[in-house]
Design brief:
Aspartate Aminotransferase, domain 2; 16 helices; seven-stranded mixed beta sheet; single chain; alpha/beta; four-stranded mixed beta sheet; 14 strands; globular; 411 residues; binds pyridoxal-5'-phosphate
């Protein structure tokens, strides 16, 4: 094929920039979570996964798997088409009611992924406001940036979690201009948390609408697992809450919750909602089961936070440079792309521990890291095993210790 060279060149560019991604071939084991079988070079070995976004292990929860199995047997494997063509399946109706209730909003709308929900919702909401100005946090996720881009609206970026900068921009825009403030509640690479109450206060004072991505918080925070806004008692102040069903809820899909007119407008105008096949009933049923379970049970959340605290304490005591935050993310500083990949490889090959390297463009160059996400299933023995493994890797590769990292961070 005469066009092949273009693709080869594109891949070479990625390799030259050390950005070429290699996916580990992993077979998750529901019965032995967080263990998985790693397939490589014709062999297969058990590894402990330490970087899953199935934060609570809900993907293997008997109630969730049972709901999926039962719904698949009852309704079949697929949705049968878009909701326009096939109607809305019974489990999706139930799921949307569950999600609206979770966030204390009158309505919710489910999408095939969180990524699509941000693209569809942000572009449609901003696009329906006359001459809207979008104020976007500098650290917002790719899916939000794509939604902003697609809206065609003017965008101004405020410094990450900087409410003074946000206020400046709100004030400069003036009271007449339609304004949409777009931000996340919990940023997944640093694990830092947005001052949601301060942001919604400002938005109210300057008559702006707010849109908050709670993807890394739903299921995990708040008395019923609705996220950081619920935990902070400001859920009612956020106009639109976006979440995923694929992380804390362990399945697949995304959603928004908010005012009925807003939700109905997105349902009616967003091509990435209208022209794609709906979530399969079995996925919707499984997601509903996860949401329902975590509304009633705080046990997973409590154990999760305890394991996270234990992991951070153990690593810090071993001189491993944990990047400080107040969340369930345990980022460990490496500061170099090559070294980060080498550390990840050594953990996997020598220690049977899987932690994917996080390099540019996911994080800024010079802040490359391992992103560790303990679950309620990472017990004391596993935490001790992880600590020893990291100690060995840090020594072997001469990686920055906690004290060297503190010096770098202070610069
Ligand atoms: C993962 C992620 C998404 C996308 O959610 P999916 O359900 O995985 O498509 C959206 N926002 C943020 C901040 C994310 O990290």
């Amino acid at each position: 094929m005469r066009y092949r060279q273009f693709f080869d060149d594109a891949l070479t560019r990625l390799r030259d920039e050390r950005r070429y991604r290699v996916f580990a071939h992993l077979e998750r084991d529901a019965a032995r979570f967080p263990l998985a079988t790693w397939h490589h070079d014709g062999g297969a070995v058990d590894v402990t996964v330490w970087c899953s976004n199935d934060y609570l292990g809900m993907g293997r929860h008997p109630a969730v798997v049972g709901a999926m199995r039962e719904a698949a047997a009852r309704y079949g494997a697929g949705a049968g088409g878009t909701r326009n063509i096939s109607g809305t399946s019974h489990p999706v109706v139930g799921l949307e009611a569950e999600l609206a209730d979770l966030h204390g909003k009158p309505a919710a709308l489910a999408f095939t992924s969180g990524w699509i929900s941000n693209l569809a919702a942000i572009s449609t909401i901003a696009g329906l406001l006359p001459d809207a100005l979008i104020l976007s946090d500098a650290a917002n996720h790719n899916s939000m940036i794509e939604g902003i881009r697609r809206s065609g609206c003017e965008k101004q970026v405020f410094r990450h979690n900087d409410t003074e900068h946000l206020e400046e921009l709100l004030r400069a825009a003036g009271p007449e201009r339609a304004k949409l403030v777009v931000f996340e509640s919990l940023y997944s690479m640093d694990g830092d948390i947005a001052p949601i109450g301060r942001i919604t206060d400002l938005a109210r004072r300057h008559d702006a609408m707010t849109y908050c991505d709670e993807v890394h918080a739903v299921g995990l925070y708040g008395p019923r697992g609705a996220g950081i806004a619920e935990r902070d008692g400001v859920m009612a102040e956020v106009d639109v809450i976006e979440g995923t069903l694929a992380k804390g809820f362990g399945t697949l899909g995304g959603y928004i919750a908010g005012d009925t007119a807003v939700i109905d407008a997105v349902r009616s105008y967003a091509p990435s909602f209208i022209f794609t096949t709906a979530l399969p009933p079995a996925v919707a049923a499984a997601a509903s089961a996860a949401v329902r379970h975590l509304k009633a049970s705080g046990e997973e959340r409590a154990r999760h936070q305890a394991r996270v605290a234990d992991t951070k304490a153990a690593l810090l005591a071993a001189g491993i440079p944990v990047m400080a935050n107040r969340s369930h993310i345990v980022p460990v500083f490496v500061g170099d792309a090559e070294a980060c990949k080498a550390a990840s490889d050594r953990l996997l090959e020598r220690h049977r521990i899987y932690i994917q390297p996080i390099n540019y463009p996911t994080v800024a160059r010079g802040t490359e890291r391992l992103r560790i996400t303990p679950t309620p299933f990472h017990d004391a023995a596993r935490i001790a095993e992880l600590t020893e493994a990291l100690r060995e890797v840090w020594r072997a590769l001469d990686l920055p210790t906690a004290s060297r990292y503190a010096a770098i961070a202070a610069e």
